[in-house]
């Protein structure tokens, strides 16, 4: 991995996507605090923009970077799995910075289009507020919004997370299997204790074999006496 590597670029884009999502979360929390302050003051203290509308709008807009982070995380999991399973082939693959940016751009398009119909059916428009006896930007939602939201929720918020989790679990199982096989291979071929034990066993066996081959007989031939020498 290097500064211009595609995986490094993917991690950087994932961090940017998570940051955008956190910005929407913080904005939503701030809008909720303003909304509570209005309610507690019995609307004697109010703000130029309706806090409730900002709260709902940022909550819906935050789904776009949330889906984008899902897709980028899945891509990184697949790349990590390929790096473990096929290390030599993966090194030769041309997964460059430009390719990572192109894939993330495609993911941005998918994330925006997956929730754009819901955002188009809601807006912040000037409305008269009876509690304040004045007009200010407030939330407007189309009657068709809930139907469209239910359809999009089924396709995006239910199916997409399930598919990404299945892919990531499969990648983890595959990596675990190949890492265990690689560990066994290195343990058998690179363990010096096992090599020394096998070497000593071979050396001991060869020494025993040589001793048995060249050992002198236990009962040597008897010496000839004087009678035996007389023929």
Automatic annotation (TrEMBL):
Keyword vocabulary terms for this entry: Membrane, Transmembrane, Transmembrane helix
Transmembrane segments: 67-88, 100-122, 151-175
Domain of life: Eukaryota
Keyword Transmembrane helix: yes
Listed name of the protein: Uncharacterized protein LOC129926853
